């Protein structure tokens, strides 16, 4: 019998010994592991630096991880049809490593776990985090096709500092610089994440903000947004930036232009998005090194 559709794709991604990648590896790839890991680690580190007790940090880590897993798995499930049409053989659903029903169950389970873990940090903190996770699901389920495609990213990342701060003793509101810096990082992540897929998205009728702007203008906007995020996160906290702050600003200043410069792989390059993750990690590491937290006091 002649192979068609997913069967042809599945045959093209067999391992050297002839096997199709297993479900465990499929779940890992489908969750978008790089941003999932980076966001979870950075938010947990910021919680620890802000003075949250170890038990609270574990709850923060669990809530952020399950939220990110649910969003990543939801994204791959919703995009399955488009991924098949585009021949994206690296996607576990396309390769046959996972079945749609299994990914739906995983996404729903992760979301169900995220709710009590988030609320266990504190009612207001949990609500802030769940609003951000809900915004990410709204992006997956339709907002990505509208000019407001950037809003769920800005809202979700901007609320992460609120999740941490509102979980601290006294439930302080997060500082404005942290919310603004997080929102700018989120918007930059959206722009750089979409860059490699703009042509395929347009062919599939997806017309979010980056698709409407086009690749060239999206690259310039991403560089400006990410550069602004670096400045806010370096100069926003009270006190002098110090060596750590200025070093981080220099590093992030080198990262932001990677969204504009010609790169190996051309328009399909993932370097701009990976540079965004490095930028976020560098800025967060500088805050922790400087002793900047989100609670009351000097930070």
Automatic annotation (TrEMBL):
<dbReference type="InterPro" id="IPR000537">
    <property type="entry name" value="UbiA_prenyltransferase"/>
</dbReference>
<dbReference type="Pfam" id="PF01040">
    <property type="entry name" value="UbiA"/>
</dbReference>
<keyword id="KW-1133">Transmembrane helix</keyword>
<feature type="transmembrane region" description="Helical">
    <location>
        <begin position="150"/>
        <end position="170"/>
    </location>
</feature>
<keyword id="KW-0812">Transmembrane</keyword>
<feature type="transmembrane region" description="Helical">
    <location>
        <begin position="243"/>
        <end position="261"/>
    </location>
</feature>
<protein>
    <submittedName>
        <fullName>UbiA family prenyltransferase</fullName>
    </submittedName>
</protein>
<feature type="transmembrane region" description="Helical">
    <location>
        <begin position="37"/>
        <end position="65"/>
    </location>
</feature>
<keyword id="KW-0472">Membrane</keyword>
<feature type="transmembrane region" description="Helical">
    <location>
        <begin position="176"/>
        <end position="195"/>
    </location>
</feature>
<feature type="transmembrane region" description="Helical">
    <location>
        <begin position="273"/>
        <end position="293"/>
    </location>
</feature>
<feature type="transmembrane region" description="Helical">
    <location>
        <begin position="110"/>
        <end position="138"/>
    </location>
</feature>
<dbReference type="InterPro" id="IPR044878">
    <property type="entry name" value="UbiA_sf"/>
</dbReference>
<feature type="transmembrane region" description="Helical">
    <location>
        <begin position="216"/>
        <end position="237"/>
    </location>
</feature>
